[in-house]
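INSTRUCTION: Work out how this chain folds

Fields: amino acid sequence; protein backbone structure tokens

Chain under study, with its fold:
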Amino acid sequence: SNNLRNLELSAEEWKILEEIQEVLRILKDATLFFSGNEPTLAEVIPAMDNIDSAFTDFIIEDTEIHLSDIIKSSVTIAKQTLNKYYDLTDASEVYRISMILHPEHKFDYFKKHGWPEDWIDDA
């Protein structure tokens, strides 16, 4: 019984696990959205924007959840990785075309989210 007590998580470890759960919930929701629906290319950019926004909120503590430094560092790395792939969407005109042709998005999405005017003009 004493040997098992040595494996018991501390209060700090439980707190870190709760923080990880909150961060992973963002990715779980996106995964379930794309797994449960028939996603279109026009939904990829907004989904990536939502994840990026949530990660930013975690990092700058613009949320009720305050993360420990180690989890904030991990979220920062995850955000950098997300942005690496996000930048790759610029290399494919298909994403731009799908967003512009989508009845809900068109150019309004880019303007509403503050995309650079020259990027919008190129699109």
User: Anything to note?
Assistant: The mean pLDDT is 87. Residues 11-36 form the longest helix (26 residues).
